[in-house]
Amino acid sequence: MMKQIADMPPGTLGFVASGKLSRRDYTDVAIPPLREAIDRGEKLRTLYQIDSDFHGIDWAGLDRDAGRSRCRCRDDAGSSRCARDASTR
């Protein structure tokens, strides 16, 4: 399970991971606020806290294409900061 941490400083998103993470934890909890901040062009810091009862990730539940998505990171000039597409790894 993943939960967003409330009351984070401006420009910071925080998440706590516990139990076993599923695809839904990413699609419903983590991705929407991250995408909103990126779309607004905000500089963003993230905090991921792993709880003591964390039991891993349900890899079978994640899309096969999740590792093939292109990075949307951009530097101040608008250039991609990603060294390469994740699918080439």
Mean pLDDT over all positions: 79
Overall 3D shape: flat
> How many individual domains?
1
What is the string of helix and strand elements? EEHE
How many helices? The count is 1
Low-confidence stretches: 83-89
Beta-strand level of the residues, as a percent range? 25-35%
Radius of gyration equals: 14 Å
User: Given the helix and strand composition, which structural class is it?
Assistant: alpha+beta
Percent helix, as a range, is 10-25%
Overall strand count = 3
Notes on the structure:
The protein is an alpha+beta fold and 89 residues long. Helix content is 19%, strand content 30%. It has one helix spanning 23-39, and strands at residues 2-5, 12-21, 45-57. Mean pLDDT is 79; it is low at 83-89. The chain is built from 1 helix and 3 strands. The chain has one domain. The protein starts with a strand and ends in a 32-residue tail after the last strand.
In short:
The chain is of the alpha+beta class and 89 residues long.
Topology:
Blueprint: E1 2-5, E2 12-21, H1 23-39, E3 45-57
Parallel strand pairs: 2-3
Antiparallel strand pairs: 1-2
